[in-house]
Amino acid sequence: QVQLVESGGGLVQAGGSLRLSCAASGRTLSDYTVGWFRQAPGKVREFVAAIWSGGMTYYANSVKGRFTISRDNAKNTVYLQMNSLKVEDTTVYYCVKHPPPANWAWGQGTQVTVSS
Fold first, then answer.
1. Would you give the DSSP letter of residue 67?
2. In the sheet where 46-51 sits, what is the strand order?
3. Residue 87: band (very low, low, confident or very high) from pLDDT cuts 50, 70, 90
4. How far is it, in rounded angstroms, from Cα 98 to Cα 101?
5. Looking at residue 101, what is its pLDDT?
6. d(CA 97, CA 43)
7. With 0-12 CB in 10 A as exposed, 13-18 as middle and 19+ as buried, what is 56?
8. pLDDT for 18-30, tens place per residue?
9. Looking at residue 27, what is its pLDDT?
10. How confident is the model at residue 105 (pLDDT cuts 50, 70, 90)?
11. 33 with 51: CB under 8 angstroms?
12. How many Cβ atoms sit within 10 Å of the Cβ of residue 91?
């Protein structure tokens, strides 16, 4: 089973940018649809973006036009480029095989903090 590890989070000012990475091990990531989700404490987990093996992408309305999901099959990695960040984008971001099966082992994610 594929294992995914998120990285790239950090602290950035509103209007700034970050690029998150989702590195795969165990399987070839190009075989999978990969999604990014985010979840703030006490809130429901929220879909952010997904990319299919053929390159098609889909975004939540809240990030459309600001975030870009992409994949580098040679590096077995999926990226989430986040531009024009807002304070409300602050939370932990997770990457998963999409859609995540019921027994998916969610990782630790990567924290994104946007300051005003």
1. E
2. 10-13, 110-115, 91-97, 34-39, 46-51, 57-59
3. very high
4. 8
5. 87
6. 21
7. exposed
8. 999 999 988 888 8
9. 82
10. confident
11. yes
12. 21
